[in-house]
Every structure is written in structure tokens, then in C-alpha cells.
Amino acid sequence: MSLPVSFNAIHAAPGAFFSLTCGHHGTPQGLALQRGSPANQSLYVGLLPAGYEQPVFLPFHAEETRDQELAYDVDRAQNGPKAGLAGLKDIKRSYKYATDAFCASVPDSADLQFTIATPFYPIPDPDDPASSIEQAMLATAPVVVAELRIRNNDKHGVCRGIFGLGFKDEEQGLADLADAELGKEVKGFAMRGQLGYAARVKGGGSVFPVQAFGMSKLHKKEVGLERLGNAGVLTFDVGPGEEEILEIVCAGFLEGTVTTRHKGRYWYTRYFPSLASVLTLGFKQHTMRFDKAYDMSVEFEAQVSSLSKQFLAAHAVRSYFGSSQLLEVGGQPYYIVNEGGYVMMNTLDLSIDHVFFELTWSPWLVRNILDNFLQFYSYTDKVRDPLTGDEYPGGISFTHDQGFHNQFSPRGYSSYERAKYTG
Predict the structure, then answer these.
(1) Which of 64-78, 88-102, 294-308, 373-387 has the lowest mean pLDDT?
(2) In the predicted model, what is the mean pLDDT of residues 226-255?
(3) Biggest distance spanned by C-alpha atoms of the chain
(4) Please, are residues 230 and 214 in contact by the beta-carbon 8 Å criterion?
(5) What is the rounded distance in angstroms from the CA atom of residue 217 to the CA atom of residue 54?
(6) Average pLDDT over the chain, rounded to whole?
(7) Residue 233 has pLDDT above 70, yes or no
(8) Helix 286-303 and helix 307-322, axial crossing angle in degrees, nearest 10
(9) Euclidean distance between CA atoms 296 and 290, whole angstroms
(10) In the 3-class helix/strand/coil scheme, how is the chain assigned residue by residue?
(11) Tens digit of pLDDT for each residue in 105-154?
């Protein structure tokens, strides 16, 4: 079986409704938080080879976009040019159970490998006295780790690696993260303290943050920080004949109440006070998470020999986690799996499908889902003869779902059913 190269994969942390979507050529992607679709950003992963004037990128962005700087220049805005990015060619992809790697080369100049690791760990049962805070932090941290490996094959010039995001008009408020938040070796950006990404050079080295309007400026570390800019990238230099690895952590963070009716906050806020604290843990666990991801992929392939089944399982598990939420409601855990792009909460017929995976991963979540259906989303109904319209005593029933897009339905109701509705 020959696997495709251009497709999106949802790289996510369990229970956070947070993801890094990446992989489809020529379309928006990036970081998403509580969104039932891929992110609407440009993901910049590329390099400036020695002797080149403009960088080349993996095609993880729309082919053309208008420079946001034109919003501050009325004369240029009327006839401003569209900006384009040069793309890397002959991209190879290795899509595994817990890793996703992209490789490309600039002939006779440099090699690039971008890898995302998404291992997952059992979420400890809060009622189990043997569970620990450390286990809970490891399993529920809203992070995705990645690395950008650049090999400079030029014997004389410096090559520059680039990683970052470009945000659209509807997402304003990009800011660089202060050294005091992450440490001097780590540089990063955050969107309103809710979405963030940061990086450091493995083994030591300098990361140069660049914030700008124009995509043509993203490789120029001397540009520094144009804080009105909609794009923020992290750059690093690779000397002649050398190889460097940029360790990357992406994170999401929402504090406070995020649902209605049943007032819920994310379970991870028990352990993390801020976005910076999540990013910090991601760097502490970066190597461990990569090692775990590689081990999980090898173990899975040893169990499942079919390439098509490996592909489907890798997709299914990632999408499942990207739709999951572990909340605290009234001091108790409340687990939700949203129905993909519909974002209906705990659709019951799909909850049944998930049982087989959940029982091997974190079995207490099955009990949690069923208990909440019984307590909040069950009711006693009548049965109706469709021919005569006569009604008769029925029994206990369960709703189709528990709400829609963070809005819990009233007790005994879902977002879907309607009385006496057919079809």
C-alpha cells in the first residue's frame, strides 16, 4: 500500500480539545483550541539555505495571502501585491502511530526533517488512592512536542532553520514570551495567553524570534519584533557542515469556566496555572515524550501488520484525542468526546464505539461517561404507535448527546432530538 503525503493529521493532547493540525499541502493549518475544524493559520516550517536570498518552506499554508501590513498602509492596500512562499519539493512523509515525520532537501545545500510526536499515557482515576499528581500532569498536559532537524551540507555558508505561525485577521494579539517565563535559552510566542509555541536548540545554542507582517521578512533575525505583526517565527543558525535540532513545544491553555449549565473548567488547570507552565513542562519531558512515541509506534506495528490498518488507527486515535475534553464539574471529573466537526458532546452511539479503546487506555472514563448519562441525561418516556398515535407507558431512555460545542443541554435533553419527530 502506497500512503499519501498530502493530508492533514490532528496531533492532540488527551482531554484538552487542543490540537496541532498539519500535513495537507496548500491549505491553512496550525494550532486550534476548542475548534471543530483545522486551524486557520499558516504553519511555517522551512530553512534559508546558505547563499539563498529567500527561504523555502514545507507547503503547510495557503498558496497566497495578502500581507497584513497593508492594513496600516492605505495607499498600498488598494493595489498591494500578494505574497508567496517558495516551497520545498519531493517531500517524503513517515506517518506512524505516535509520530509524523516530513523530510525534504535542497539539493547540494541542506536537509530538513520535521517530526511531531504524540505519545499518550493513561489518565489516572482520581478515585484511585495510588494515582499521583505527577501521573496526572503527564497524561493531561495540553502539549504537543515536535523537532526541526536541519543538516547544512554547505561547507562555507550558514543555513538558517525556521519554525512558526502566521495568524489571520480574526486572530489578533500575538506576543513574544518573556525570558522570565521560559528561561533565556527558550524563545516563543503566545496568542492571548491561550495558544503558544516555543523552542530551544538541543544541546545549547541561540534561538532568534522574529515577529513581522511580511512573510519575506520571516528569515531575517535582524528584523526582531514588529509587535503589530501577525506572524511569529523562531529561527536558528546551522554552521557549515553541521546539524542542529530545534526542540519545539506547542501548548494550549484555558482557565476558568468553559461550559454552560454544568459549569466546567479543564481538569489540567488543577496542575497548571498558566500557558508558560505548560510549555515549561513540555520542555522537561521533551526527550521522554519522543522516546515514548517511537516505542509506541514500534510496538503497534509489531501487533498490526497491515499498512492500511496502521494508517486508519493512527488517524482514528489522533482525531479521538483532538475531540476530547476532561473537565472538572462540581469538583468531579467529567469526560467528553465531541463528535468531530458537529461538536455534539458525548454522542451516545459513538461513545459505544469508543469503549473498546477506552477500556484498554483509561477504563475509568467509560464509567464516568455512563454515570453522567444516567445522572443527567436519562429520562422516562412513553412509546407511541406510529399508525394510531396512541401512547403507552415506556421506560428509561437516554439522550442522543449531552449538548453542543461546550453548551450542555438541560437535564434529560440533548441538542438533537425533538418530540414526535420522524426521519
Answers:
(1) 64-78
(2) 95
(3) 88
(4) no
(5) 9
(6) 91
(7) yes
(8) 140
(9) 10
(10) CCCCCCCCEEEECCCECEEEEECCCCCCEEEEECCCCCCCEEEEEEEECCCCCCCEECCCCCCEEECHHHHHCHHHHHHCCEEECEECCCCEEEECCCEEEEEEEECCCEEEEEEEECCCCCCCCCCCCCCCHHHHHHHHCCEEEEEEEEEECCCCCCEEEEEEEECCCCCCCEEECCHHHHCCCCEEEEECCCEEEEEEECCCCCCEEEEECCHHHCCCHHHCECCCCCEEEEEEEECCCCEEEEEEEEEECCCCCCCECCCEEEHHHHCCCCHHHHHHHHHHCHHHHHHHHHHHHHHHHHHCCCHHHHHHHHHHHHHHHHCEEEEEECCEEEEEEECHHHCEECCHHHHHHHHHHHHHHCCHHHHHHHHHHHHHCEEEEEEECCCCCCEEEEEEEECCCCEECCEECCCCCCCCCCCCCCC
(11) 999 899 999 999 999 999 999 999 999 999 999 999 999 999 999 999 99
pLDDT, position 227: 87
Do residues 276 and 179 lie in contact, with contact meaning Cβ atoms separated by under 8 Å? Answer: no
Q: Can you state the angle between helices 307-322 and 348-361, rounded to 10 degrees?
A: 110
| Nearest of 227, 231, 226, 269 to residue 251 by alpha carbon | 269
The x, y and z cell numbers of residue 279, run together, are: 510549555
Higher pLDDT, 281 or 421: 281
Sheet order of strands, 324-329 included: 264-266, 324-329, 332-337
* pTM value > 0.90: yes
- To which residue does cell 526533517 refer? 113
Q: Cell for 240?
A: 557549515
Asked whether the predicted pLDDT for residue 157 surpasses 60, the reply is: yes
Cα distances from 18 to residues 37, 119, 200, 237, 319, in angstroms, run: 11, 15, 22, 30, 11
